[in-house]
Amino acid sequence: MGRVARVDVADQVYHVINRAVGRLQIFTADQEYKLFEDLLLEVQDLTDMRILSHTLMPNHWHLQLYPRQNGDLGTFMHWLTNAHTRRVHSITKTVGTGPLYQGRYKSFLTQSDQHLLAVFKYVERNRCVPGWWGA
Question: What is the CATH classification number for the domain harbouring 67?
Fold first, then answer.
């Protein structure tokens, strides 16, 4: 049985999260955070995704994304998570050892302006890791 199709509608804001397999750490050093943020910019350019906010935590991350066209969210997330996994495995010489993420990303459609602001606050409050970006 195939997976249920995700909601992936243009001009809607999504709160997107993903966590490391086994809740292990994904990010342990500033250069690992920088690698992910560089990938965010790279895939943003490729897909024309609007990134409203993001935060990276040691074992997971949150994004607020605002796709321009139907299907853009899936394209953006597929590229981001696959490229990140491949690069981490390449750098750590762990190619072939299994997944980096516990599964597919989770995405939640923002329901209202109030919900949008609540998610902005939630994402901002979760900025817990000092890093190269000056947080």
Answer: 3.30.70.1290
Q: Which residues of the chain have a pLDDT value below 50? A: 131-135
d(CA 17, CA 63): 6
Distances (CA, A) of 70 to 6, 66, 67, 112, 121: 11, 11, 7, 19, 26
Please give the tally of structural domains in the chain. Answer: 1
Q: What per-residue confidence (pLDDT) applies to 46?
A: 93
Strand ordering across the sheet containing 106-109: 50-57, 60-66, 14-19, 106-109
- pLDDT for 2 equals 67
Q: How far is C-alpha 112 from the geometric centre of its chain's CA atoms?
A: 21
CB 78 within 8 A of CB 43: no
Domain membership of residue 135 (yes or no) is no
